[in-house]
Write a structure and sequence with these properties.
The structure holds two protein chains of two kinds. By secondary structure, chain A is mostly beta strands. Chain A has three domains: 29-319, Cupredoxins -  blue copper proteins (Immunoglobulin-like, Sandwich); 341-472, Immunoglobulin-like (Sandwich); 484-561, Immunoglobulin-like (Sandwich), CATH 2.60.40. In chain A, strands 3, 4, 6, 8, 9, 37, 38, 40 and 41 form a nine-stranded mixed sheet that branches. In chain A, strands 1-16-24-23-18-21 form a six-stranded mixed sheet, with no helix packed on it. A five-stranded mixed sheet of chain A has the order 2-5-11-10-7. Chain A is globular and about 70 Å long. A five-stranded mixed sheet of chain B has the order 5-4-3-7-8. A two-stranded antiparallel ribbon of chain B has the order 1-2. The longest helix of chain B is centred in the middle third of the chain and has 11 residues, at 68-78. Classes of the chains: A mainly beta, B alpha/beta.
Chain lengths: 562, 199
């Protein structure tokens, strides 16, 4: 008997010393007005033993820093592509000019630095950045390219909520991966992963203080949806979705989160024992075909060891509370007034098509084409879009530029979920449902540069389930006369100025190329009153391409960097 | 029925994304090589050659960077027995500045390459092997005056920890030198993708 106890104790000890779980990586928090994001091909030990996995990191070896943006602030991004492939970086959920949006048109070639900037007008909430290079989005995202954005504003700052990052407020990017025998991420022919990967950590565990905590959860899968709950079925409170704080917390014990969607939840651990554990569980069993991840297959393109089962998304361990923990669930949060269907002056319908036999999914039987503008929206229009899915599989619909209000599911406001009452930029579109949303397309007109709408499933958007729209107004601008332009000082060491100050706002794009013809700097709609900082360029001859906003004509000038 | 539909949903275009292409057993036609450290070469430059370990390689890839030393050691072990290592860079040096001739010279000199570091500017060598990654290894073996691919895959199975890796490539060479068929002729290659220039 004694030997059995001894053996059992040794077994427990071995479990402790060879922990089943790994504490998740919490991305570093950066709070600045200029961010330098360097995108690298890199390696990470993702599997417990054996070979390293080829990954893509932003300033690191997987995923990237969490960027804090403040509502009202001007933010500048320097995105440098160190990959041996082109890429783009899309600021998911941000309201900004199309030319800064980082969609499939803002391609950053290897070695170039893209420098978008914008004024942050989004509400406090959890957003993110990720690659959006057409046909390559899945591969670059699955390799780890992306990061969180946390927007802060005065309204949220006044709420009695946990907001100490990494202490009582945690970012959680839920995902899974399938691996080859050599520990490489399976990209082709793999809609779902077999093993959870949360914030780039396998067998993930998060230690939380014994108090009320805030979890910012992002579904960053290729296709899988999560029907989330806690393993003891406790209630939790949704305080925000994609576009920021709700008007009041919503109490639930389950919530579905599809690819690209975010929720912020409060969960109360104050009654849990220190050292106890529970799981954030995906209750994904029992779904019919059409729920992404509901397939019964365990192998093949749509197979996964996690399919149609309840599985641990994230193991949670309760530790000592922090000093002065936030107590109590607020009864109300925000006072947002939303658009209604009656506010809309334009109605549009989009149908999910394709998906039969060898035909990929599309919208309105039209696959994505970089040169086709599918919709033209007038600046400041309030529009109502209804997206209908009568095909065989669910989707996650996302639109760039705006946060919208879901006003109906299957034609009825009563069908809209309590968890999706706030501003949204992604919604779940199940089989045999329609979703109607209302949005105002304000601030940024650009007849040339489109925004995207698409299914956020990597394989679907890469295969063409995407369309593009432009927002236009009818205000013309004067064409630039080439003789108005010269560069000074030339040669230069640090700043390069353009002779005519009146050109500000009339230059649509500035691209700097080296003498080999490689793009080294990309400046969308630059503020020319500041000059162009070329101090980091090596000495040599460079070409500057200036795109005239009115005519889209490209004017080329030369300068020497000393 | 619906499930069958779902399975077929993506196959046509996903198949295009398949990366592993086998050339095992294929005859390789001798090619000219311009190396940054050993001048211009071809197979006849190695009179005692029974075979070559052809390794597609590059400057940029973090996985390739882990194999500089192992490549030299492999050559030092097997060159005397008539098997020579060739490091071939198939990356498009116009698109990727880091892959240009000058940077290749630096890499070969800094890391004391004893193996020829060859620029495959036209990507014609890589196309013969249908190479997909750097690093990716092949053994071509001389049989009755012709050259055949007898191994394809990875150098070994652990980038950062050579001591705990299974030396697939070295094992294949040893098998061939002993006149045996290669025990494991095909392993998975991994690393950075080679993108072929569109014509």
């Amino acid at each position: 008997m004694k030997s059995r106890i001894l053996l059992f104790s040794l077994f427990l000890l071995s479990l402790k010393s060879f922990g089943q779980y790994n504490e998740i990586w919490i991305p570093g928090l950066e709070d600045a007005s200029t961010y330098n994001l360097n995108v690298y091909d890199t390696l990470k030990q993702l599997r417990p033993t054996g070979n390293q996995t080829v990954t893509i990191g932003v300033n690191g070896d997987f995923w990237g820093p969490t960027l804090v943006l403040h509502k009202g602030q001007d933010v500048h991004m320097n995105v440098t592509n160190h990959l041996n492939d082109s890429t783009t970086v899309h600021w998911h959920g941000m309201h900004l000019p199309a030319v800064m949006d980082g969609g499939p048109h803002q391609v950053i070639p290897p070695g170039a630095t893209w420098q978008p900037y914008w004024n942050v007008s989004n509400r406090a909430g959890t957003y993110w950045y990720h690659p959006h290079l057409h046909t390559m989005t899945t591969e670059q995202l699955m390799k780890g390219m992306g990061g969180f954005i946390i927007v802060q504003d005065d309204e949220e700052a006044a709420m009695n909520l946990p907001r100490t990052y990494g202490a009582d407020d945690f970012p959680i990017a839920l995902s899974s991966r399938k691996y080859t025998a050599a520990n490489q991420i399976v990209i082709a022919n793999a809609a779902y992963g077999d093993y959870m990967l949360v914030n780039g950590t396998s067998s993930p565990q998060l230690t939380l203080p014994k108090q009320l905590v805030r979890l910012r959860i992002l579904n960053v899968e290729n296709e899988r949806g999560y029907n989330l709950g806690f393993s003891d079925n406790r209630n939790f409170y949704i305080i925000a979705n994609d576009g920021g704080m709700l008007n009041a917390p919503v109490q639930v014990n389950r919530v579905k989160l599809m690819v690209g969607e975010r929720i912020e939840i409060l969960v109360d651990l104050s009654g849990d024992a220190v050292g106890s554990s529970l799981d954030l569980t995906a209750y994904n069993s029992g779904f019919a075909l059409g729920f992404p991840g509901g397939e019964p297959n365990t192998s093949g393109v749509f197979g996964s060891l996690l399919n149609n089962s309840d599985f641990v998304a994230l193991h949670l361990v309760v530790a000592n509370p922090t000093a002065n923990p936030v107590v109590g669930i607020p009864s109300s949060l925000s006072n947002e007034v939303y658009w209604t269907a009656n506010d809309a002056t334009v109605s549009r319908s989009i149908a999910v098509t394709g998906g039969q036999g060898p035909v990929p999914f599309t919208f309105d039987n039209t696959g994505f084409n970089m040169t086709t503008i599918n919709k033209t929206v007038n600046l400041d229009a309030i529009e109502k879009w209804t997206v209908t899915n009568n095909q065989i599989f669910g989707h996650a619909f996302h639109i760039h530029d705006v946060e919208f209000k879901i006003v109906a599911r299957n034609g009825s406001a009563a069908n809209v979920g309590a968890h999706e009452q706030g501003w949204k930029d992604v919604f779940y579109l199940p089989v045999n449902e329609s979703v109607t949303f209302v949005a105002k397309f304000n601030d940024y007109a650009d007849a040339e540069h489109p925004f995207m709408y698409h299914c956020h499933f990597g394989l679907h958007e890469d295969a063409g389930m995407m369309g593009q729209f432009v927002v236009v107004n009818n205000v013309g601008t004067e064409e630039i006369n080439e003789s108005e332009i010269s560069l000074y000082p030339n040669p230069t060491q640090e700043l390069l100025h353009i002779s005519n100050a009146n050109l500000n706002g009339r230059i649509y794009y500035v691209t700097v190329l080296n003498e080999m013809g490689r793009t080294v700097m990309m400046l969308p709609s630059p503020d020319l009153s500041r000059g162009i900082d070329v101090s980091h360029l090596s000495a040599g001859i460079y070409l500057v391409q200036l795109t005239d906003k009115a005519s889209k004509k490209i004017i080329v000038k030369k300068f020497i960097k000393e | 029925m619906k499930r069958v539909l779902a399975i077929f949903l993506f196959l046509p275009f996903l198949l295009q994304a398949q990366t592993e292409v086998s050339v095992l057993g294929k005859e390789i036609l001798p090619f000219e090589m311009h190396s940054v450290n050993k001048g211009n070469l071809n197979f006849n430059s190695f009179p005692n050659a029974k075979g070559f370990a052809v390794i597609f390689f590059c400057n940029h890839c973090p996985m390739a960077k882990l194999y500089d030393k192992r490549m030299q050691e492999l050559d030092q072990k097997f060159a005397v027995q008539g098997v020579h290592v060739l490091a071939i860079n198939p990356m498009d040096s116009l698109v990727y500045e880091e892959e240009n001739w000058k940077e290749m010279v630096k890499r070969a000199s800094r890391n004391k390459f004893v193996v020829p570091y060859v620029q495959d500017g036209s990507q014609e060598i890589a196309k013969q092997f249908q190479a997909q990654h750097t690093p990716q290894a092949y053994v071509v073996w001389k049989e009755e005056g012709r050259w055949f691919v007898r191994y394809e895959g990875s150098f070994d199975d652990n980038g950062e920890h050579p001591d705990s890796a299974t030396p697939f490539l070295a094992n294949a060479i040893s098998d061939l030198l002993e006149g045996k068929p290669v025990t494991a002729p095909q392993t998975e290659s991994f690393g950075c993708r080679i993108f072929y220039r569109k014509k």
